Amino acid sequence: MWQPNPTWGSPKIVAEPAKLGIEVAKSTVEKYRPKRARPPSPTCRTFLDQHVRELVSIDFFIVPTAAFRVLFVFIVLAHDRRRIVHFNVTEHPTAQWTAQQIVEAFPFDTAPSYLIRDGDGIYGERVTRRIENLGIDEVVTAPASPWQNAYVERVIGTLRRELFDHVIVRNERHLKRLMSSYLDYYHPWRTHQSLDRDAPDGRPIRRTVVPYAQRNPATSLNSRPSTAFTMSIFRRLHEYSGLATASLLPAEGRMNFRDGQEFQQYYNQERVHASLGGKPPAEVCRESSKDQTELDKFRWEIHCRGLVQLPMTA
């Protein structure tokens, strides 16, 4: 019954046999009726991602000055890359001044499709008319609902936490200079989790790690032995009574070559290693009938500009 009528649902299939005196449970029909493959519908997140390039938000926030004046900062935020496309500062905002800022933010044909704002009284009839003339549909958030304009509210919080909580603004010109300086950092350098840890203008990944085999021991800081490995060698020097750790310190002078030779002989011939089965390197080489040149892997090399001499393999 379902094959010639693929659009029928379970209730419809149950109703038709009932007219013929055949009682069938709905659960039975749903169990044996083939599932109809439906194309997946886009989620709300996909819908927002597809339209985020056409969304901008505007808002005001206040900044007090050292002279106890209150300055109003107007910002325009593009949602797609969290870019602050325009900002300006004034002490006495008006509807005419705000409308002019919107025109300056979107010159020529760069106006978005939708503009999100709150219901502040500063956005009067003149602002609304200017937005309509630009071909923008404005979306007004509900009263006392800042989460409906979350992107611009988050940017305002970022400006407070990273800039205005650490400086004292003197006047309007000082505030504009601070904002311009911060935006020079914000757009090319500051990373965002919503942008997959990228900056609004796009920040390339700089891979400067040099492979270990290509490092130059004479010039590369990364080629020097780690602190843990160095301290391990210092502890081993204590095992040999002929050496003292104090002789390795810069203030006490460097290890002379004679002591280095003596410790090298002890290290290769007598000092046991857990990685070698509790045997010294020379004995392992003799047992495996290897050439004496195998001891080269335990040779000494000068590190840290001759301050100490360390074996390559511990």
Structural domains: how many:
3
Q: How would you write the strand order of the largest sheet?
A: 3-2-1-4-5
Assess the beta-strand content as a share of residues: 5-15%
| SS elements, strand count | 7
Rg, rounded, reads: 37 Å
Mean pLDDT: 78
The name of the CATH architecture of the largest domain is 2-Layer Sandwich
In summary, what is this structure?
By secondary structure, this protein is an alpha/beta fold. It has helices spanning 10-19, 26-32, 44-51, 95-105, 125-133, 150-164, 172-186, 227-239, 257-269, 281-287; strands spanning 55-64, 70-78, 83-90, 114-117, 137-140, 300-303, 308-311. The protein is built from 10 helices and 7 strands.
